[in-house]
Amino acid sequence: MTVEKNKNSDCFKVAVRCRPLSNIEIQDGRDSVVSVNSQRGEILIKPNNDPAERLIIFTFDEVLGPDTQQDTVYQSIAYPIVESALEGYNGTIFAYGQTGTGKTHTIQGKNDPICERGIIPRSFEHIFRSIKGTSNTQFLVYASFIEIYNEEIRDLLSNNSKHLQLREKPETGVFVKDLTSFLVQNEQELNNKFMQGIQNRIVGQTKMSSCSSRSHSIFSVTIEKCEVLNGESHVKVGKLNLVDLAGSERQSKTQATGSRLKEAVHINLSLSTLGNVISSLVDPKATYIPYRDSKLTRILQDSLGGNTKTAMIANIGPADYNCDETISTLRYAHRAK
Ligand code: ADP
Ligand code: MG
């Protein structure tokens, strides 16, 4: 097996986004232990704000402080990946972090006010604006949306709640058998599919008494581009995966048992495998990429490494009581650099 690696940091970017202190944290008199130096790409942590404690500094490709607007996050992280998906390259954006740090805010955001929209709805607008502005080219845009919970895959755009299986064929690689994929004509239809999936996710989770923080969701947009040049048609296919990962908080703290323990084991397995895959992809000495160790990395195999673009946005909160989790998120993200 040959291992293709991302050769430059253009292909793999790690960003850290620190949310502001929440109103409750401010009311509770919480201190911020995180400071951000965007110019230098540094996150500085002062554990427990104790002057005697040493300062811990982490460096990343990009750091986005508490005042960073959704538009800035889109322009600096998502824009280049969506552009290359429109050119026929696969791309993936992950939101990683402890529950409550802003993964869903970053990936999905809110529709009202419009400036609070996250990466997903902005990418829809970007894709269809670009398509409208391109002549002599036909585009077909498909949407699919899955959730991975306890290493089981569910189709969020289908009424069928059965678990889907992974299959592999030499010509197509790994794929999710029976996954629905909808052809969409415009931004509104793409948004409708996304919202439909979000609703199905909530309904399914209510049935299982689970919650979104314990599962991964992957919204994928496949863009087929058929360009006619000198009477010859050229087809390119790019796929954009937008991933809201399960909360990375260490589950042992909650002394989980039974089904909660099972969830914890599966979340730890998939997040650690993702970390291992990414660090092997960026390590020139690595000879083996452990894609097969989790469903998440198997599904995304053709969109990680090789000719693809990937960004991980590690989300953190600034408050003192989250300090240990924040450091563990930064260590994880730093390993992926
Ligand atoms: P997660 O998905 O990681 O559990 P959420 O995205 O649900 O976290 O964010 C938790 C809360 O914090 C939400 O109320 C969200 O609106 C708010 N929040 C997160 N990030 C920001 C931010 N950068 N600016 C303002 N509010 C934020
Ligand atoms: Mg969330």
Written account of the structure:
With 337 residues, this protein is an alpha/beta fold. The protein has a domain at 79-311: Kinesin motor domain (Kinesin, 3-Layer(aba) Sandwich), CATH 3.40.850.10. Helix content is 31%, strand content 28%. Strands 1, 5, 6, 7, 8, 9, 12, 13, 14 and 15 form a 10-stranded mixed beta sheet that branches. A 3-stranded antiparallel beta sheet has the order 2-3-4, covered by helices on one side. Strand 10 and strand 11 (173-176) form a beta hairpin. Helix 2 crosses helix 4 (119-132). It is globular, with a radius of gyration of 20 Å. Mean pLDDT is 91; it is low at 1-8. The chain binds adenosine-5'-diphosphate and magnesium ion. Magnesium ion (MG) binds next to helix 3.
List its traits:
alpha/beta, disordered N terminus, ten-stranded mixed sheet, 337 residues, Kinesin, binds adenosine-5'-diphosphate, binds magnesium ion, three-stranded antiparallel sheet, 8 helices
Q: What order do the helices and strands come in, and which of them pair?
A:
Layout: E1 12-18, H1 23-27, E2 34-37, E3 42-45, E4 56-59, E5 62-64, H2 70-86, E6 91-97, H3 103-107, H4 119-132, E7 137-149, E8 152-155, E9 163-164, E10 166-169, E11 173-176, E12 182-184, H5 187-207, E13 216-229, E14 232-244, H6 258-282, H7 295-299, E15 309-316, H8 323-335
Parallel strand pairs: 1-5, 1-15, 6-14, 6-15
Antiparallel strand pairs: 2-3, 3-4, 7-8, 7-12, 7-13, 8-9, 10-11, 13-14
Helix pairs in contact: 2-4
The structure holds adenosine-5'-diphosphate and magnesium ion.
Adenosine-5'-diphosphate binds near residues 20, 99, 100 and 105.
